[in-house]
Amino acid sequence: MIIQPLFFLFILGSGFSAARMPGLEEVGYIDFLAPGIIAMAIMFSSMFTGVSVLWDKQFGFLQEVLVAPVSRISIIIGRTLGGATTALIQGFIILFIAIGLGVPASGGILGLLLTFIFMVLIAFTAVGFGLVIASKMKDFQGFPLIMNLVMMPLLFLSSAFFPVVSNPILKTIAFLNPLFYMVDGLRGSLIGTSNVLVPLVNLIIVSLICIVMMTAGSYFFSKSEA
Amino acid sequence: MDIIKTTNLTKKFNSLTAVDNISFSVKKGEIFGFLGPNGAGKTTTIKMLTTLLNPTEGSAEVADFDIIKKRDDVRRKIGVVFQEPALDTELTGKENLDFHARMYALNKEKRKTRINDVLNLVDLMDKKDVFVKNYSGGMKRRLEIARGLMHFPTVLFLDEPTLGLDAQTRRAIWDYVKKMNKDEGTTIFLTTHYMDEADYLCDRIGIIDRGKILVIDSIDNLKNSVGNDVITLTCSDMDQLINKLKEQNWISKIKQHDSFLTLGVEKGDEKIPIIIEIAQNLNIKIKSISVRKPTLDDVFLSFTGRTIRDDTQNNKDRLMPPGLRARRR
């Protein structure tokens, strides 16, 4: 799971290292890219944990959990914390590699703290989204479809790989894209430049998105029958 | 004392009524079986009783707790072995049991002794540290039964416990089930479509077909209701023979099926010559005739009008996509 984001970081990062475009005046491309890749890694990894409920469903293991005298909420919390932990470990590995590559953590301690909060929120949101998908789908066949047709376009339009400020249409679309606030917030708090919105504004929006997604995930999961 | 009690339990899936208004009770300490073909509503009933599905109508109590209002209390009292294996294959046998025990809030001490107890019961002690993915089908089944017993359940649900296992393993599992019923006093509710399984294991059975319970009684009573011996025969003019046989008062039960006739009689071997004589006098050719002790198959046949095997076969064909169906023939 962690290999793909690293490929993105190294290959895109070195390939576009000489690129100059609007919105990229103050920083090198790899500095710009790193927060986007961290967000992507956490997002995909957590989403996969949420969706892995489908495995349990298919192998029948979910039934075993559901007949136990354990409340549905604690099952969801367990699943979320477990998924978020692995996702955050991956996120930190990429973060450290990025800092090792010279990406400046210009926000200082406060910036790193904010970065951490964003990473946690992204992880929870993605697990929630994964749970919604897992509760609504019967098997794994639709999963690549959602990855390719929903997640990838949203990620491309989130300013994870290139700045969206240069193009007014892209910018409008970005403001409708929940992933944009996550990537922009992470970038603002980690490298402190090239972000569109102030990190705190992003933080409020991302927190709201997270609450909505987690609620939706818990709701659909508790409604789904094994 | 009744451990399970249902009143008018019903489950509908859209237009399909899977379980249709069933009411029955299971006594403490007995092995009760639901016998019926695939798709009869057995698994749906178990899923409702184990709180995995909500009934559309009606209610049920398990160990004196309502399955809708007191879900968590019901869950604490029951153990379940599902039809499909529900083990974590990436864990060892012992770890599976430990995980289960933690979910049921057993303390460390108790977990340790209980894991050893149940592993010994199903003879898996020497395999406890092997990953479940390396277990055979029979071993997985045994581990699941052991797991179902981990938390001292009042009642254990077994959904088709020996489905897809070989004859030897089935026999072993039956013995484990009997043993735990005796040693631990666990009430057992099982479903099966195997006649021999119901016959060997159950104290009482309910015959279920198309979501309805046709009859509930002890195995002996059910067999006696068919007659002491069963004579099966095929002949040329069935209707004529039936009319004549109906005049004979030593035949307790006559039932006509598509291509054969079954008669319930006493001392069957002595009656064969008499029947042949009657047929010969009417100029009816008897193609085959046999006598045997009644089996649950006969009971099932007399209540549903068809054998369970026909039905299982039909069900399989119906469930299979058309392409596969053609290839099978």
CATH topology of the largest domain in chain B: Rossmann fold
Largest sheet strand order of chain B: 6-7-8-3-9-10
Helical residue percent of chain A? over 70%
Tally of distinct domains of chain B: 2
Beta-strand percent range of chain A = under 5%
Q: How far apart are the first and last residues' alpha carbons of chain A, in Å?
A: 28 Å
Structural shape of chain A: elongated
User: What's the end-to-end separation of chain B, in Å?
Assistant: 51 Å
Largest sheet of chain A: none
Structural class of chain B, please? alpha/beta
Task: Profile the largest sheet of chain B.
Answer: 6 strands, mixed
- By CATH, the superfamily of the largest domain in chain B comes out as P-loop containing nucleotide triphosphate hydrolases
Number of separate domains of chain A? 1
Low-confidence stretches of chain B: 315-329
The first-level CATH class name of the largest domain in chain B: Alpha Beta
Name some characteristics of this structure:
heterodimer, A: 226 residues, mainly alpha, B: 329 residues, Rossmann fold, Alpha-Beta Plaits, 2 domains, 41% helix, disordered C terminus
Topology:
The complex is a heterodimer of chains A (226) and B (329).
Chain A (H helix, E strand, L loop, with lengths): L2 H13 L13 H23 L1 H6 L2 H6 L5 H29 L7 H29 L6 H14 L11 H8 L2 H13 L8 H25 L3
Helix pairs in contact in A: 1-2, 2-5, 2-6, 2-9, 5-6, 6-9, 6-10, 9-10
Chain B lengths: L1 E12 L2 E12 L3 E5 L6 H8 L7 E6 L2 E2 L4 H7 E4 L11 H11 L4 H14 L15 H13 L5 E5 L7 H17 L3 E6 L2 H7 L2 E6 L2 E7 H8 L2 E7 L2 H8 L5 E6 L4 E5 L2 H14 L4 E7 L3 H9 L3 H12 L2 H7 L1
Parallel strand pairs in B: 3-8, 3-9, 6-7, 7-8
Antiparallel strand pairs in B: 1-2, 1-4, 4-5, 9-10, 11-13, 11-14, 12-13
Helix pairs in contact in B: 3-4, 4-5, 5-6, 8-11
